[in-house]
Design a protein that fits this description.
Layout lengths: L2 H4 L4 E7 L8 H11 L5 E6 L5 H9 L3 E5 L4 H16 L6 E6 L2 E3 L4 H10 L4 E3 L2 E2 L5 E2 L3 E4 L1 H13 L6 H18 L4 E3 L11 H6 L4 E3 H5 L4 H9 L3 H5 L2 H8 L20 H25 L5
Parallel strand pairs: 1-2, 1-4, 2-3, 6-10
Antiparallel strand pairs: 4-9, 5-11, 6-9, 7-8
Helix pairs in contact: 6-7, 10-13
Length: 300
């Protein structure tokens, strides 16, 4: 479908973002500006705090609606509360609903192309990537929903109360939403396939000029268990990679995307030593867990 045809659709983009600063980060502005160019109205959903005048001016200049909300329930909580607000006061309905969060940094403005591909697909729900953990599901950092998928989302919110922890949100809200859609016979599609689980495959996606990267990989913002997940699966290189440098070399970032908008990993000179001992600790912890499972009798 051509870009012009996308602009004729009735849709809405909900960009969920938790931030602590009064100023919108550069990568958030870049994504919001690109999304606004699709012709779909954009809503910036964020935690309640003061925003500086420059951020307000940016949102106003791009005709982006600002929706402050409490910081609970992660991105699904923000989306839920906005949809409840709309249902209560506006009675709006859309032919398309696009759910996005700021866990991904988009260093290429390819939203027109992505939306066109999603629209050309016969799938009810389209994401950029998919995952097989827990069960097959679309990753919720980007969801392009058509009418039947929108109705499934509203039903999903009715069925499930707000979750309190990150992993409950992943299992119940993200994985559970894909499960509900599959149970209803809806078709799901991911626009990008990878040869290995997607968390370990961003080097592949960067080389393919996909134009996006997981922010956690830039920041190295993982728990011990998540770091061990890389190690256990032989993906240490995927964890330790300097993604900002690799994107500059292989990712073809847009010329108007500034390199300093890539969130950098501020590791110290002792990073390698700390990484080794962290892995050693987790290795013995994991082996102790396996031994305990083998030694202790199973519960009746």
């Amino acid at each position: 479908m051509a870009d012009a045809d996308i602009k004729t659709l009735s849709g809405k983009i909900l960009y969920a973002s938790y931030q602590e600063s009064e100023t919108l980060p550069g990568y958030v502005r870049y994504a919001l500006a690109g999304l606004a160019q699709t012709g779909f109205p954009v809503v910036y959903l964020t935690n309640e705090r003061d925003l500086d005048a420059d951020s307000h001016a940016f949102l106003d200049s791009h005709h982006i609606e600002l929706f402050f909300t409490v910081n609970s329930g992660y991105d699904f909580g923000m989306w839920r509360r906005y949809l409840e607000y709309v249902a209560k006061f506006r009675k709006e309905s859309w032919g398309r609903l696009v759910l996005i969060n700021d866990s991904i940094v988009y260093y290429q403005n390819r939203f027109h192309s992505i939306f066109s591909r999603a629209e050309a697909s016969d799938a009810d729900a389209v994401s950029l990537t998919q995952n097989e953990e827990f069960r097959h599901h679309l990753q919720s950092f980007f969801l392009y929903l058509k009418p039947r998928a929108i109705q499934a989302l509203l039903e999903h919110f009715e069925r499930n109360p707000e979750t309190e922890t990150f992993y409950d949100t992943v299992r119940v809200m993200e994985v559970g939403f894909s499960g509900l859609m599959q149970d209803k016979g809806l078709k799901l599609e991911a626009l990008y396939s990878t040869s290995a689980p997607v968390l370990f495959s961003y080097l592949e996606l960067i080389r393919a000029k996909a134009g996006f990267v997981k922010r956690k990989l830039l920041e190295k913002r993982f728990t011990d268990e998540e770091v061990f997940h890389f190690w256990k699966n032989g993906a240490e290189a995927a964890y330790k990679m300097d993604y900002a440098k690799f994107i500059a070399k292989e990712g073809a970032p847009d010329k108007d995307f500034r390199q300093d908008w890539l969130v950098t990993d501020k590791k110290s000179a002792l990073y390698g030593v700390r990484y080794f001992f962290r892995m050693l600790y987790l290795h013995f912890r994991w082996n102790a867990h396996i031994i305990k499972q083998k030694v202790l009798p199973s519960s009746p």
